[in-house]
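Hey, can you fold this one?
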Amino acid sequence: MGSKKAYWIYQIVGWSVYFLSDLANNLAFLTFNFDEFNRIIGSIVVNVAAGVAMTHIFRVIFKRYHWIKLPVTQLVLRSIGVVGLITFVLAAINIPIGSEFINTEKMNWAIRDISYIINYGKPVLIWVLIYVFYAYATERRNAEVERVKLEASMKETEAKVLRAQMNPHFVFNALNSIRALITEDPKKASNGITQLSNLLRSSLITHRRTTVSLKEELKTIEDYLSLEKIRYEDRLQSKFNIAPNTLGIQVPPMMLQTLVENAIKHGVQKALRWGFIEIKTLIENNHLAIIIRNTGQLEDNKNKRNSTGFGIENTKRRLHLLYGNRFKFNIHQEDKLTVRAEIWIPLDQPKES
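Sure. Predicted structure:
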């Protein structure tokens, strides 16, 4: 049942039940006979129509002028005014109608009028209270939904910005390395161009996808390392120890490439003779564990952020946006010449998009 249809059904049924019960409570005062049956039914119809119409007008005004956004004091005062107005109108309708059925000689007119106001004030007050609390709850729910949508939109925007931040220096260095090989080793230069195009294509995918399979990410890293080996030649050694059951797991695109790039920039590049990068994956405690070891040294805590580079902060932020506090990231000095980075990603993660 739609909300509008339910609203009208509750309105008509609610007011009908009230006025019928009110009629039953006043049977002792009625000079009832069968000739007056139609007039009694007519009075009930008039009362139901008046109750439905006036409360609906209140609802329309309440929504159109956004009373729910008013300060509490103003909302209370306006609601009290509405209750008084609707009660007065209902009492004014029913006093002359009731005098036709009730023997007015049995009660004082003041008592009669006060009893009408009290009788009709109670259902009107209850109706207004229920509607105001309902409107308040609906407003809070809608505000929460909008807040969640806005937060999700902001996170998605931030994630896209972070995924788009590829180090332009690498592209320039790769192009310069390839240019140097064009005359010296054309075939190797051609392979380098192919690998660079693959890497650039992978970076473009990050704008459209939240995650990619680990297998795709590793292919990007292989292309990246192949290009870097053009520059470093035998100075750069790489090793992969990948568990087969991890290849289909989804990871943030270009995440590992960013960490490997960081490892080369702050580790291998500074090595005196040669350096290495080792990537290992496994599944443990319902998490995908990714371990990256590389030649290098972390500086003290004061300069740690600068020593690890922006890529580390970028990676942490992206992981937080995707997995909240369910991921783990740690980077430390394993020994004097080796830096170890560990990432633990929960396996119950969002679907690829």
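The two ends are 34 Å apart (CA to CA). Let me know if you want another pass with a different chain boundary.
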